[in-house]
Design a protein that fits this description.
Oligomer: heterotrimer
Strand order of the largest sheet of chain A: 6-7-8-3-9-10
Largest interface: B-C, 54 and 65 residues
CATH architecture of the largest domain in chain B: 3-Layer(aba) Sandwich
Chains: A alpha/beta, B alpha/beta, C mainly alpha
Mean pLDDT of chain A: 89
CATH topology of the largest domain in chain B: Rossmann fold
Order of helices and strands of chain A: EEEHEEHEHHHEHEHEEHHEEH
Strand content of chain B: 5-15%
Structural class of chain B: alpha/beta
Strand content of chain A: 25-35%
Shape of chain B: globular
Number of strands of chain A: 12
Radius of gyration of chain B: 24 Å
Radius of gyration of chain A: 21 Å
Distance between the termini of chain A: 61 Å
Order of helices and strands of chain B: HEHEHHEHEHHEEHEEHEHHHEHH
Largest sheet of chain B: 6 strands, mixed
Helix content of chain A: 25-40%
Shape of chain A: globular
Number of helices of chain A: 10
Structural class of chain A: alpha/beta
Low-confidence stretches of chain A: 271-286
Mean pLDDT of chain B: 85
Number of strands of chain B: 10
CATH class of the largest domain in chain B: Alpha Beta
Chain lengths: 286, 295, 364
């Protein structure tokens, strides 16, 4: 179980998060959705321990995460970032093997190698073992890192947490689903999974819990079918949309008509507040 | 095992270090017995010149790069620049004696030579006439030669130089330059070898503003207003000759520049302070005066 | 996922050859170093045969009686050559290891230990002792004279390190980009002060400075070896254990944190250890270019970027290569000696250019 208790985060005068509380238990896939700048990634990075919030605490398995040793934390919590900056010519196998770092003392056991191979198998990266990481495409890299993160918390106590920051961003459609199916399987294996997604339909299909963020606050939390509504989509995402049941699966689907028509005072794209010369130029347009 | 074997290696190294330092506590005594044949490595131009002047040249088996006189010395194996000697190279010449000037180093190498059991003698000298004589005495003593002939010759030359000096009515103000390479010139100030030589030769040092050497500046040149400029000949060559020196900013406007009184002199003769010091005073004196009368 | 029992049963078969082969890196390079140590103990202005070295060693350890060896050989071997070889091992290992560590910390394979300004700081200390030493020497007993310069150089390195570390720490965190800038600033300041000292130096001091800065292992005595073993050898042993942490750091600082690495402490400790090593190396041997840059590169081409092998391997290979270069320096113009820095730079520069060209082709 991973828990955020009254988290607030400010940088200067800007409030990025305001009093957010959230608990994700083993077996649960909580998907964080929200428009740009809503604070999803900030919340995920705070849960990941990358940044310290200005107020509030994060607990891992019931204890504040700062009370765990760095190594123990790494055995309990794995984080898949949007992208990594690895530029050294590691082979893919070595990158996945790096996930075993918290478990190894200097060098790996047979078990570590075995887990590495399994993690590569489930992320569809078998056959990449000898390939140099820098030669991979963005999507392939993302899958290799997914393998690394899975290898890190492949097995262990039931209070492991897996944090994924837009894991589908650079993947093709098939791999997007494969990735989220993996997240579900990790949850089935008693992990608590927190995942940031942009695609509401993917979110609706794979989330056990949907958390909608808006302007640094938690707007709604609950089962996708209960949370998603045309009203919420209008209020938070500013889209004109329908929510319909999936024809075959038991999850809702979001079908958009387009952006929400704004009120009269909203600025129009074709007339930016600008200099007279621009206005005269626009006067000449048909 | 991987990292551990490195540790093991370094542990072995540590043991070796310990053994070595144990050895170090019992320093090897220099061999006092006189072998059938003396083999001398000589470091420093004055030391080498003195050895050859004393007739011990045959025993010299190696010299440093500054030992350029006499010619016989230049044909011997070179052990490097006197301030960056290498112990092993010197030992490979199987010397019975390493005779070095007080400029020789680095100190650690001298330490190594001592600990290798070689007799090492450092012969320094005050840069005065008495210092030169003392050094001749000392070297003669170390190698077991009679210094009287060399000293007599030195005295004779110095006496002649003094006579010339006292006879002369002019005492030209001389500026001594040293070309450091790359076009930079150093000026010899007070309390330098060059000043001593200029005085022995009957001149005056034109520079009185500072001790030691300093880079040349046009203003310092103008302030010194030398009648004559003395420069070691190798340095003058590296500059590009007299014409190049006259083009150095400030030189042409000095009295010496106007009358083109530039005196090149052999580097070791001017700055070496070896047994030829008397001859150097004579030669420099003659040049200072001859040039002055020629114009 | 719960298939671990099956996974364990799969055994070693699935480990890629490069990963499996890597286990041999350190033993193989240890063997190379052993050969280098033995060979360079034997060659020099005075060649000493291996058999003779063995006999002399046994004799020195009291395990054999006096042998027929040439008497000066014992003195050359014990007073000069073995200390020099051991100093070469320590300095070469230190330079190789600190190069590999710096490249890892900066996540940039073209970084050199000189980047932090540590060597420039050490050089400033050394030059100061050469130029000002004469004036201060009166209070120093002659027996300590050989240690004045190394001590001054080491002190210079430590001051430079503290300055860099202080500047680079922003709100309790060491920012790598700031570290680089701090290194540049300290480099510039130390170079300027060194230039000032060179300006006021006399001709003889200038030549001493020039030769010192070209690097040499010639000053090795058993005392310097012992001192170096302490100031360089201990940091070396501590630093070599950071391979796993560096691997994680290569993914990025946040990811390293997620993998259980205490990133700030790791960076700070490693920088301090690197500085101690570089400072001690420059203090006893002058500036030896390119070893720290080239050695980790060479090794990365051969065994890949896993820093657990790379760190130990760079130490071993650095030691071997420096011994080789020193053997060249000692024998090429015998009985004089080439400055070691000239040899390492002359061997290293073409290699460095080849790497740059390769990199350029790859990016083109």
């Amino acid at each position: 179980m991973i828990e955020a208790l009254s988290i607030s985060h400010r940088i200067g005068s800007a409030t990025l998060l305001e009093d957010v509380s959230l608990a994700v238990s083993s077996g649960e896939v909580l998907v964080l959705v929200g428009p740009n700048g809503a604070g999803k990634s900030t919340l995920l990075r705070i849960l990941a321990g990358e940044i310290a919030p200005t107020a509030g605490t994060v607990t891992l398995a019931g204890r504040p995460s700062s009370e765990w040793s760095a190594r123990k934390r790494a055995e309990l919590r794995a984080v898949l970032p949007q992208q990594s900056e690895l530029s050294f010519p590691f082979s893919c196998y070595e990158v996945v093997l790096l996930g075993r770092t918290p478990h190894t003392l200097g060098h790996e056991s047979q078990k570590d190698h075995a887990i590495t191979r399994l993690a590569m198998a489930v992320t569809d990266t078998r056959g990449y073992e000898e390939r140099a990481y820098p030669t991979l495409s963005g999507g392939e890299r993302q899958r290799v890192h997914a393998g690394r993160v899975l290898a890190q918390i492949w097995e262990g106590p039931s209070f492991r947490a897996l944090l994924l920051d837009e894991p589908t961003a650079s993947l093709d459609l098939a791999h997007q689903h494969a990735m989220l199916r993996l997240a579900r399987r990790m949850a089935d294996d008693q992990c608590a999974v927190v995942c940031v997604l942009h695609d509401l339909n993917l979110a609706a299909q794979y989330a056990t819990t949907l958390a909608v963020m808006h302007r640094g606050r938690l707007h709604a939390v609950g089962r996708p079918a209960r949370v998603l509504s045309p009203r919420l989509l209008a209020d938070v995402f500013e889209v004109d949309a329908l929510v319909v049941p999936h024809p075959e699966l038991s999850c809702p689907m979001v079908v958009t008509r387009g952006p929400l028509e704004r009120k009269a005072d909203s600025p129009s794209l074709s007339s930016p507040a600008s200099t007279p010369s621009n206005e005269s130029l626009q006067g000449g347009l048909p | 095992m991987r990292v551990r074997s490195l540790h093991m290696f370094l542990a072995l190294l540590a043991v070796a270090v310990a053994v070595l330092s144990a050895c170090d506590r019992a320093p090897v005594k220099p061999r006092e017995d006189t072998p059938a044949e003396a083999r001398i490595v000589s470091v420093g131009s004055a030391v080498t010149e003195t050895l050859f002047a004393l007739g011990a040249g045959d025993a010299v088996v190696g010299v440093d790069t500054s030992s350029l006189f006499p010619d016989a010395a230049t044909k011997l194996p070179k052990v490097g620049y006197q301030r960056t000697l290498a112990a092993e190279g010197i030992l490979s010449l199987r010397p019975t004696l390493v005779l070095v000037s007080d400029e020789a180093g680095p100190p650690a190498v001298l330490e190594q030579l001592r600990s290798a059991g070689v007799r090492l003698e450092i012969v320094g000298a005050e840069l005065t006439v008495d210092g030169v004589k003392a050094r001749v005495h000392r070297i003669a003593e170390v190698v077991g030669r009679d210094p009287s002939k060399v000293l007599a010759e030195l005295d004779a030359d110095l006496t002649r130089a003094r006579v010339e000096r006292e006879k002369s009515t002019t005492h030209p103000k001389a500026l001594v330059l040293y070309a450091r390479g790359g076009g930079t010139l150093q000026v010899f100030g007070r309390n330098t070898t060059a000043e001593t030589m200029v005085r022995l030769a009957g001149g005056e040092n034109a520079v009185t503003g500072f001790d030691g050497t300093k880079p040349l500046t046009p203003e310092a040149l103008a302030a010194a207003a030398p009648d004559v400029i003395v420069i070691p000949s190798r340095g003058l060559e590296s500059l590009g000759g007299v014409d190049a020196l006259l083009k150095v900013p400030g030189v042409a406007t000095t009295p010496a520049g106007k009358t083109k009184r530039i005196v090149p002199i052999d580097d070791l003769l001017l700055l070496g302070f070896g047994p030829r010091t008397g001859k150097a005073a004579l030669e420099l004196g003659a040049k200072l005066r001859a040039d002055g009368e020629g114009k | 996922m719960p298939a671990t029992a099956e996974a364990a049963a799969m055994g070693q078969r699935g480990i890629p050859p490069r990963v499996a082969r890597r286990a041999w890196t350190v033993p193989a390079l240890s063997a190379v170093l052993l050969v280098a140590v033995v060979t360079s103990s034997s060659v020099g202005s005075v060649p000493i045969s291996l058999a003779e070295i063995g006999a002399l060693l046994l004799q020195r350890l009291g395990l054999a009686t006096a042998s027929a060896a040439v008497d000066t050989h014992a003195e050359i071997l014990f007073a000069i050559r073995l200390p020099r070889v051991m100093l070469g091992v320590l300095v070469g290992a230190g330079l190789g290891l600190s190069g590999a560590s710096m490249q890892g910390i900066f996540r940039n394979p073209l970084v050199d230990p000189g980047l932090l300004g540590i060597s420039t700081g050490a050089a400033l200390g050394a030059v100061a002792s050469i130029v000002l030493g004469g004036k201060l020497a009166h209070g120093i007993p002659p027996a300590l004279a050989p240690y004045v310069l190394p001590a001054a150089a080491f002190a210079g390195a430590l001051v430079a390190m503290m300055a860099v570390e202080r500047i680079a720490r922003v709100g309790g965190r060491m920012v790598v980009a700031t570290l680089l800038l701090a290194g540049i600033a300290v480099n510039a300041l130390a170079s300027a002060l060194t230039g000032l000292l060179i300006y006021v130096s006399n001709d003889a001091q200038l030549r001493t400075i020039t030769f010192w800065s070209l690097g040499s292992l010639g000053g090795a005595t058993s005392r310097t070896v012992v001192a170096t073993a302490v100031f360089l050898g201990i940091p070396l042993l501590l630093l070599v254990r950071y391979g796993g942490a560096l691997n994680a750091l290569l993914l990025g600082e946040a990811e390293a944190g997620h993998l259980g690495v205490d990133v700030e402490r790791t960076k700070r400790t490693m920088i301090v250890l690197v500085a101690l090593i570089v400072g001690a190396a420059v203090a006893v041997s002058g500036v030896l270019g390119f070893v720290g840059l080239v050695v980790p590169h060479l090794l990365r081409l051969a065994v890949g970027p896993d820093h657990r092998q790379l760190l130990a391997g760079s130490a071993l290979l650095g030691a071997s290569l420096l011994l080789g270069a020193d053997a060249v320096a000692r024998t090429l113009v015998s009985p004089a000696e080439l400055p070691l820095g000239i040899v390492t730079a002359a061997l290293g520069t073409p290699f460095f250019l080849a790497l740059l060209l390769r990199e350029r082709r790859r990016l083109a």
